[in-house]
Amino acid sequence: MTARRPWWKTVLGIVFIALMLFPVYWMVNVSFTKTQDLRLDPPHLFPFDATLDGYTEVLRQQLPNLGTSLLIGLGCVVLTVVIAAPAGYAISLLNLRGGRTLNFVLLVAQMIPGVVMAMGFYAIYVRLGLLNSIGGLILADSTIAVPFGVLLFTAFMSGLPRELLQAARVDGAGAWRTFVSVVLPLSRNSALTVALFAFLWAWSDFVFASTLARNSDLKPVTLGIYAYIGNNTTQWNAIMATAVVASIPAAILLIVAQRYVAAGVTAGAVKD
Amino acid sequence: MAISTAPAAPPTRPAPTKADAEPRRRRAGRLQGSRWIAVAFAAPLVIYLLAFYAYPLIRSIDLSVHDYTVRAFVQGNAEFVGLDNYVTVLTSPLFGQALANTAVFVVASLVFQYAIGLALAVFFRNSFRLSGVLRALFLVPWLLPLIVSGSTWAWMLNSDNGVVNSVLQAFGLGQINWLTSPDTSMLAVIIANIWLGIPFNLVILYSGLQNIPAEVYEAASLDGAGPWRQFWSVTFPLLRPVSAITLLLGLVYTLKVVDIIWIMTKGGPADSTTTLAIWSYREAFGTGQPDLSPAAAVGNILIVIALIFGFVYLRTQRRQESS
Fold first, then answer.
1. Is residue A258 part of a domain?
2. What is the CATH number of the domain that holds A183?
3. What is the residue range of A146's domain?
4. What is the DSSP letter of B282?
5. Could you tell me which residues are beta bridge partners of residue B66?
6. pTM tops 0.80, yes or no
7. pLDDT tens sequence across A50-100
8. Which of A49, B66, B85, B241 has the highest CB neighbour number within 10 Å of its CB?
9. Cβ contact (<8 Å) for B53 and A112?
């Protein structure tokens, strides 16, 4: 261990992060800017003369949309974990026949563009009357996270010591009991990672929302922002305020679950 | 969760751990006694995949070989036209441009995301004060909803009031019509997409670097290799498998990007940012008149392209493993 800390690296790191996060800063800055100052040239670099107009606009118009997004996100989390956790258990610990094939299918599934999926869903939803419904969006959005969830659960559960399963078996637990009282509690961290990503992806989804819920009364917040942009509005402070509010879940999750986020990104690269 | 190149011992070779291997096999056998139970646990996933992947996919193929007008869509009596939609799409003057745009978008995004991500990963390899916090902050762009990043970039690159142009002006450069000129629009969406992809590249490459043992570097520096030499002769070659998967995932993701381009330019001006994915999206949902059949044809061509790269990757990976 070197006693000398390379302080210049810290300085350089701060410079890098400042460059990288400038757009985020700018979003916050614009969200506090007065409407008449938006066209200023050069623009104010700091929100000297801050206004909350943008945020009052958000509260007035976007609250139901935020609620819709929350509902869709939570629905996706439940659906994803319920489907993915048992499947991961079967592939990793129960020696499922065809487990490798299933992993391969999941890999391929992730290559299908969202647009194509959206068209398929659209065609099906027209018939079933699921267009513009929250349930329909939950089902469609969950397809972003399920393959990832299965691959992550499989990778994690294969690392569990098989002695534990055997001990449970000796104690007379069947496959289901072992799953519920041994495997699931031990997989809590990976379940959190899967849940986190399922929520964030559903919360951020634009492609499915803009194709399957265009005429819905209950729009997710991404469509709320899109409607602002589409109207050729000059209210960029309101757009940016909505953007800031829509980013809050990501910010909270990053602070609370930073570890899991990094784990999840890397798990995306785990091969079968 | 490291990237596991799990050293699963080949079953045929008598491994030195033969004593261990024996009971393990018996144990596996006992767990396998309940094969149907395993199937039961996987059944929800299989049903899910059939209902929510296979069926939509079949519907999209079905769309592409029929002539679905809006009316036929509701009545369900679209005319079967075989591969006509594919012919129309492939001979359309837009096809060449969309293909070229896709290639430029993907290659430029990947090269810069990877290079910047790798440089940052190497920078963060040795910990220093605040390195953990700073590395975590790099994830922010990746976690933001794409519509948020897209609209922020659109406003920053605005011709008249954008902060980017006012900074450029301070340096004596003229105004650039980032999003409204066909010459720069592609550059604009690529810049935004690179920004979005850096965190992902950084995290995966960083964890790949962590798996390179420190002794290798010690040996290299004993041999008198400087930092530059160490990077090219040690880091880069040892990182190759991780680099490959990073680039493949990046490729698959970048090929299907819709949100960011659609939000910033809608594929314009003059189709200068129309990629295959954007083209498909616009045909199907971007205008008042949904034209699902050609859109599905474009989308299916896109799947084929993604699959080709996926299989090439799996092939090379398997060959590497067997050698």
1. yes
2. 1.10.3720.10
3. 62-265
4. I
5. B80
6. yes
7. 888 889 888 888 899 999 999 999 999 999 999 999 999 999 988 888 888
8. B85
9. yes
